[in-house]
């Protein structure tokens, strides 16, 4: 391995992988390590592009056999209908098993209370962690990428969580070579991030290369939106718009898919994958900066939520 | 060419940075990210906002990389972080490792996956102990390329002679250790000289900028001379109507190339057969190479399971229960003689016992401390391990993947130690203190 060719610009390099092939191969390796070492793994699936790419990688990793994992969706109750429809169609098409943990159910039972700002993103943590404990999932795949946020830049590929699902950034295991350590005590579990080394652009390029179908809200379409805190939010039964906020029809698309109450749309006329990629490559805003209200709550919002068990 | 094709044709370079506290490593990383336009407006605004709230005049680029509360509060970097940036020619994964002496394990972690290390030196101080330590770690981890970034050239009047003397001293030292390739670049991370843009202040320098070098350094390997190795991760058996008899051995090729029709041996059992087919994530191929994730189909119905290693029959490693290695201890609890551990090598995890710790290495002067009795966090030493089952280990010099392992505490799962099998450094290095010993070769 240490023998290095003195290859120069332009010489044929038959044994070099393109960056997407390298990232794909690494992610597949991670999926297979988990399949080999854990009893009861599950893939967090929101119907967003990252979890869709994760599922695609899992399908390739175990082909021609079925994916040996179930899916888990934390339903905030404020999901985009297009995304739920996509979720159910994918689950049926691949014969997968889907667990749904419902935030609405927790609110109805009085266990969780609606926040004054209306966002349900932080409310996902309890249904998620309780379902992990109840189903005894020992490995939980998340689509988190280290490029998303600086607390995530410190995240391991295999990230041990205690029996309360908590993350302690100061007590992480060093990860050396590709030797992942999945040892855990009963009650603990490991969060696994196969897309750790991917960037938003990598994800989009991979979607284009593999021709992966996405929910239509990722592409430009006319939509009724209103402005709140500088973001275009979808009008809907979840509680927007309020007094003084006016609805208008705009040509928009989404960069991330989450709870309708805190996921903003961006003005866009990108109706194809190529157009989306051109737009992302030229964007001067991160996807979270552009479209996520919850990360703006404080400088350490993501770190704090991750410590509690958020993905 | 469409945007997609243009951008996906690029390759990926993993590299690590190393530098002492005040060498300007955060500034260099910040400048690489900033000048390659990888810092987006909202991130920069956040940095400016926090810098201003602390009363700092300009944006503190170190805030881009210190992500955790404790780091921001204490103004230090406590852990490896991974950064991502890209140019039209290449994608980069940067393992940003803190430079304090007590964080040796972090540099080892970052360097374990890196193909290049950037070692920073303050032009005013030249090669210091910390520099030698970083060079030794790069050599120990066998990182194929090293960049010596002589920083703060603006503070030595951009003098060529200052740079030349440091470059010469460092290159001689690194070459002796066996670092295969050293590229020295005079820079000022603060002023931006030779980081992304060529410097107008050093026309005597004709080499590449840091970014140019990162973009062009070769990442391909000459696999003709590599021992082919496939650690089996998982057995794929669909047992469906379409594939009633499919039995594939899935894994990521750790080294070399495999071809359909090639005679192979399965270790540790030693059974032989031939490769009947290779599936590259669902597509049949004739040949596959490192680091592709593949599924291999074998001609005969031999017993193969997770943890086995598939190798060419003509090039099989010996299996052994006695492993000698150089290790870096990464856990807070010490490693002692008699310690019962688990060893994870490739996809196999077996019980093992630490039989002996013949020596501990001082990185500053490469001197040896014989029989230290234990290794504590950040110590580097020689270790002899007896394993409960035979392992097909390669020398780390031949294969960074099948020559490496980790030790795990069986009680609580802690990753204890990072190990590299075989001799420590690539070329012999005479040392004053030739005290013992079995296995040290420098």
TrEMBL record, chain A:
Instruction: Select a single GO molecular function from the record's annotations and give it.
Output: ATP binding
Q: Where is this region: Disordered?
A: 292-311
Its Enzyme Commission number(s) read 2.7.7.4
UniProt keyword list = ATP-binding, Nucleotide-binding, Nucleotidyltransferase, Transferase
Q: Which SUPFAM superfamilies match?
A: Adenine nucleotide alpha hydrolases-like
Biological processes, Gene Ontology terms: sulfate assimilation
Q: What is this protein called?
A: Sulfate adenylyltransferase subunit 2
- Native species: Streptomyces antibioticus
From TrEMBL, chain B:
Looking up InterPro entries in the UniProt record yields:
CysN_GTP-bd, CysN_II, CysN_NoDQ_III, G_TR_CS, GTP-eEF1A_C, P-loop_NTPase, SO4_adenylTrfase_lsu, T_Tr_GTP-bd_dom
Query: What class does this enzyme belong to in the EC scheme?
Result: transferase
Tr-type G domain location is: 10-222
* Disordered: region residues: 423-442
UniProt xrefs under PROSITE patterns = G_TR_1 (PS00301), G_TR_2 (PS51722)
List residues traversing the bilayer: none
Query: What are the BP-aspect GO terms?
Result: sulfur compound metabolic process
Q: Per UniProt, which keywords does this protein have?
A: ATP-binding, GTP-binding, Nucleotide-binding, Nucleotidyltransferase, Transferase
> What is the protein's name according to its record?
sulfate adenylyltransferase
